[in-house]
Specification:
This protein is of the alpha/beta class. The protein has 2 domains: 4-122, Response regulator (Rossmann fold, 3-Layer(aba) Sandwich); 127-197, Arc Repressor Mutant, subunit A (Orthogonal Bundle). It is 55% helix and 12% strand. The protein contains 10 helices and 5 strands; from the N terminus they run βαβαβαβαβαααααα. The chain has helices at residues 12-24, 35-41, 61-70, 86-94, 107-122, 127-138, 143-153, 158-165, 169-183, 188-197; strands at residues 4-8, 28-32, 49-53, 77-81, 99-102. The longest helix is centred in the middle third of the chain and has 16 residues, at 107-122. It is globular, with a radius of gyration of 17 Å.
Length: 202
């Protein structure tokens, strides 16, 4: 099966470097300079993975996601964010993105995220099983670890969580490290993905 990657980013340098790297890794890559250009060229019955910059002039990544959903296009989306855009990235994951990567991202992290996306495409029929596994993982957390995860789902920083729970930022860091270890999550986005799969919302 041809593995297509659609890269939507207004930065010429990122489009060129990422597309070169991905083609070298064996993917077929189509690049787009902005959301409208991408939406004008995407076909509903094509399959693939979308790398979507969250901050673009005119139409941002969240608006592109909303339009894809409105058209019934359900390709897995990986969000590309600048440093400090965690709140926006969380909003994108709530809207269905499977992963977010902060720029500048490492090649290994990008390829791992794309592998996850294509695994998702091939196992969509296993959604119920994945939800059950995610819920079982969340159930292993202590009450305070669940509190911290809830606030992470809300897009809050460690400092803001500490204030909300009347504990120290260092204690939040410890709970956060513990919950990620229990969930087997190597990144915040992996932990959030499990939380959304388990419908962990306030």
């Amino acid at each position: 099966m041809t593995k297509r990657v659609y890269l939507v980013d207004d930065d010429d340098a990122i489009r060129h470097s990422a597309s070169f790297m991905l083609r070298h890794a064996g993917y077929m890559v189509k690049t787009f300079r902005d959301g409208p250009h991408f939406l004008d060229n995407i076909v509903a019955d094509e399959t693939g993975c979308i790398l979507l910059d969250i901050r673009m002039p005119g139409m941002d990544g969240l608006a592109v996601q909303a339009e894809l959903k409105a058209r019934g296009i359900h390709m897995p989306v990986i969000i590309l964010t600048g440093h400090g855009d965690v709140t926006v990235a969380v909003a994108a994951m709530k809207a269905g993105a499977i992963e977010f990567l902060e720029k500048p991202y490492e090649k290994k992290a990008l390829l791992a995220a794309i592998d996850t996306a294509f695994e998702r495409l091939s196992t969509q029929s296993g959604d119920a099983r994945m939800k059950a596994e995610a819920a079982a993982s969340i159930a292993t957390l202590t009450a305070r670890e669940k509190d911290v995860l809830h606030y992470l789902v809300d897009g809050m920083t460690n400092k803001a969580i500490a204030e909300a729970l009347s504990i120290s930022p260092r204690t939040v860091e410890i709970h956060r490290a513990n919950l990620m270890e229990k969930l087997g999550a190597e990144s915040l986005s992996a932990a959030l993905r499990l939380a959304f799969l388990a419908d962990l919302n306030r």
